Amino acid sequence: MKRRTLVLSGFLLILLTSLYIGFLFKTVPGLLFSNSNEHSSSSSNTTSNEHVSNSSNATSNEHVSNSSNTTSNEHVSNSSNTTSNELSNSSNTISNTAPKNYNKTLGFEHIYVINLPHRRDRHFKMGDIEEVLELDFEFYPGVSNNDSEILDKYDFNIPLNIKTCYVSHYRVYESIVRNGYNSCLILEDDVDVEMDIISIMTDVYRILPDDWEMLYLGHCNWDGDGKLIGDTGSFQLYESIYPVCTHAYAVTLSGAKKLLSELTEPIYAIDIELMEKITQKRFKSYTMEPSAIVQWKSKDNPSDIFHAGKPWTYPLKKSTLHYLGFQEIKYD
Question: What is the residue-averaged pLDDT of the chain?
Fold first, then answer.
């Protein structure tokens, strides 16, 4: 009996132990997993929140950085643009106010060379003079008999061969006024120039009156009966009386404006019309004597306008074309 009681007690103990163990397996794992989930969730949330926070901060920082960069870039860009614009404006101001190199334009603001487009031989010859004397020329297209479209714009009742030359010079006056050049030297494309022209003009400017409107650097006749203005030692400057030829003369802006209004009803060639106006004291004009620029006349260099005999010309002291190796074929 006692033995049976012990067996039952052992069996009950085992049963209770099993039940207790089962209870533990059902409850504790739940608690364990719950804690694990909470930890995981907390970790996850923490990580997620940290990630979101970091992302947010990163985004915010990126935004701030980008904004800062954008602002910085805009500032740099704007500063750069402002500086660039200021430099550009400064450059424009300088280019609009500063005169050209004095020596390259002989003290004038601009030099025109009237050249018929088909006379390439004269263009090249004048180009050689430009290069060796280190000058700066603008080759301005002359008007020929075939340029009817241009000639028809000017109601000048004069012979065609005279009108072409007249219109060529008149168009240069228009260009001077249009560009606002304070003074310009006008050359025809058949000239020879003194080698020392730069120093010659430097000396002439010292005696040239400030109110001049026209200046003849070359002419085809002696008009020395006018008043002597000054003497450089090599050249004299006179008031113009009867200057003839237009191969080398200078005009101021005010002079060009007056020429455009005074030369609207021509009767004669351009040089005679100018002489008439000067004789009538319409212009303050001066003439250099002797000529520093002369016409280069040769049998192999005929004029496209006048086909006359031996021309009037002067020898130069130091011919640029002779220096370059050109030799004129003398007229008989």
Answer: 76
